[in-house]
Design brief:
This protein is of the alpha+beta class. The protein is built from 16 helices and 17 strands. Among the domains are: about 30 residues, no CATH class; about 120 residues, Pnp Oxidase, Chain A (Roll), CATH 2.30.110; about 170 residues, no CATH class; about 45 residues. Helix content is about 40%, strand content about 20%. Helix 4 packs parallel to helix 6, helix 6 runs antiparallel to helix 7 and helix 8 packs across helix 9.
């Protein structure tokens, strides 16, 4: 039958295992339940070990770049490769240049290293230990050790990142085999002016899927969202989480989907509960490196409770298909939320960042009890606690304990019985468990984002939280409260009849005052004329 791509060629078991380990082959996801019992698994292994023919073994070729093996085109992953080559080195202000200087590029550290002869004019000009010298690399040519990928750049603008140091062995030859004038060399470490380096490959890196974007800092075991189908002008995009290099997430496709990159990035970050850094972008032959470093600490507040949940699918589609202005507003607020969860700052600072997210998304851009209560799905009394702690911290009341004391015992005692048990429990014996309150605020904002993205109600309870989950947020209720606040604001702009009457009387008095001033002026002029006439008669 035309279009079928099934093969019946025999393969050695060790070859299949190697391809699976490298990522060249992957098991297809049929979205069906697991039906293999232990006896069936044992029978299959026994059949394979005895070289008995197996009825069918279905795999799919991986479209992602693998870490230790090869891709569909046999090329190693660029992130695992240290490139070497040559370039012309120039320093702005110098008339000379060092030509075809050996260079090495580490994509993960985003660092270039050059080997300069000690006698070269460029090297002598860099003897000064100042670190801020600008360096230009021209006619850059780089290749990987396997000679499968070659990168070029017309010019790279970098800056010096180290004092010159000896590095005779870097050329790959023992110092005794070098020419006498080349034995004394200096290592020059260079860093990009911006946190990105772009190259052009000699060939397309992936013909089937020429567009790739990678993010680093991912959690292990995450199931990738299902592929996004092409809808209208929206391109199709696929995702990969089980990358051979730990901590990498990948989105790839046949079409240029980079207009969706901020939305995909936002979805990944919300799922992980932290900011994720871009690592690598591939657009046909154009490659952008951003560097990749291991995360200093794990994400301890991800959105997911179970990695098998369909929640990532709903979150991804919610961001991708969101209206433009709506996404622009959400993207700014999302950064406050993520920093409030994971930033390297005090708990008070992170709490204020979370409340900045609340204020940015409440529709009236001011913290009122009604809008905060609706946005977080809590009572007005709980909203008073959230808003009050934020206001006291912002206005310089010091630590959370001092801010809590400044709220006033009488105000809290009257409102605590009206709070939900989960929030009332944050106050024990007139003391505030601020960590518990912060956890609760994170949980409530997770619920809000699920509602904002249109996550189905049955998936909302798949969220992860170190505290018990409260009910989902009712987003239509928030819309109603926003409209009430807006209407109240519009009505407040209209003056009452009493105020209109007072304003009319003030205008009348002002007019009478102006008339009196004009009459006094005329009388003064008449008196001056009369006095002048009397004086002339004398």
């Amino acid at each position: 039958m035309a279009g079928w791509t099934f093969q019946t060629n025999p393969f050695y078991l060790h070859k299949l295992l190697e391809d699976c380990h490298s990522g060249a082959l992957q098991l297809p996801d049929f979205q069906r339940s697991w039906v293999w019992d232990e006896e069936r698994i044992k029978s299959l292994i026994a059949s394979v070990s005895r070289a008995f023919p197996v009825g069918a073994l279905t795999t799919r070729h991986s479209s992602c770049w693998s870490g230790s093996g090869a891709t569909e085109s046999g090329m190693p992953h660029l992130l695992l490769t240290t490139f070497a080559g040559h370039a012309d080195v120039t320093v702005p202000g110098l008339t000379t240049a060092a030509c075809r200087v050996p260079i090495r590029f580490d994509p993960q550290a985003l660092r270039l290293e050059a080997l300069l002869p000690a006698t070269d004019p460029v090297c002598r000009a860099l003897v000064d230990e100042r670190r801020s010298v600008a360096i230009h690399l021209c006619n850059v040519v780089l290749g990987d050790p396997a000679a499968t990928v070659q990168l070029r750049a017309q010019e790279l603008r970098l800056y010096r990142n180290n004092p010159l140091s000896e590095w005779p062995e870097w050329s790959g030859l023992p110092a005794c085999e070098l020419e006498p004038e080349a034995r004394e060399t200096r290592r020059l470490e260079l860093a990009p002016s911006a946190q990105q380096l772009e190259f052009i490959a000699d060939d397309e890196l992936s013909r089937a899927h020429p567009f790739h974007v990678y993010f680093g800092g991912a959690l292990a075991g995450l199931r990738a969202p299902l592929p996004l189908e092409r809808i209208a002008d929206t391109p199709a995009v696929s995702f990969c989480c089980n990358h051979p290099q730990s901590g990498l997430l990948c989105a790839f496709g046949e079409e240029d989907f980079f207009s969706l990159e901020p939305r995909i990035h936002a979805a990944w970050m919300l799922i992980h509960g932290r900011r994720l850094a871009p690592v690598l972008q591939i657009q046909g032959r154009k490659i952008g490196f951003f560097g990749h470093t291991a995360c200093r600490k794990p994400s301890y507040l991800p959105l997911l409770d179970g990695w098998g949940s369909a929640l990532p699918d709903s979150v991804m589609r919610g961001f991708v298909y969101m209206e433009r202005d709506r996404f622009s507003k959400a993207y700014r607020a999302l950064k406050y939320f993520l920093d409030g969860k994971q930033a390297d700052a005090s708990l008070e600072a992170r709490y204020m960042l979370l409340m900045n997210c609340v204020e940015a998304m409440d529709g009236v851009w001011q913290l009122t009890e009604s809008t905060t209560a609706a946005l977080l799905g809590v009572s007005d009394a709980a909203a008073f606690l959230f808003n009050g702690m934020r206001n006291k911290l912002v206005h310089g009341h010091g630590s959370y304990a001092q801010a809590f004391a400044a709220l006033g015992k009488d105000k809290l005692d009257s409102r605590q019985p009206q709070m939900e048990p989960e929030l009332a429990g944050c106050i024990q014996e007139q003391q505030l468990d601020f960590v518990q309150l912060w956890f609760r605020l994170c949980e409530r904002l997770d619920a809000f984002w699920c509602a904002y993205l249109g996550v189905p109600a049955d998936m909302v309870q798949d969220r992860y939280s170190p505290v018990t989950l409260m009910p989902a947020v009712d987003l239509p209720a928030l819309d109603r409260v926003i409209k009430q606040c807006q209407n109240t604001g519009n009505n407040s702009d209209k003056e009452s009849p009493e105020m209109e009457e007072l304003r009319r009387q003030i205008l009348q008095l002002k007019q009478k005052n102006d008339d009196l001033k004009e009459k006094l002026k005329e009388q003064g002029q008449a008196y001056a004329r009369l006095k002048s006439e009397l004086g002339s008669n004398d």
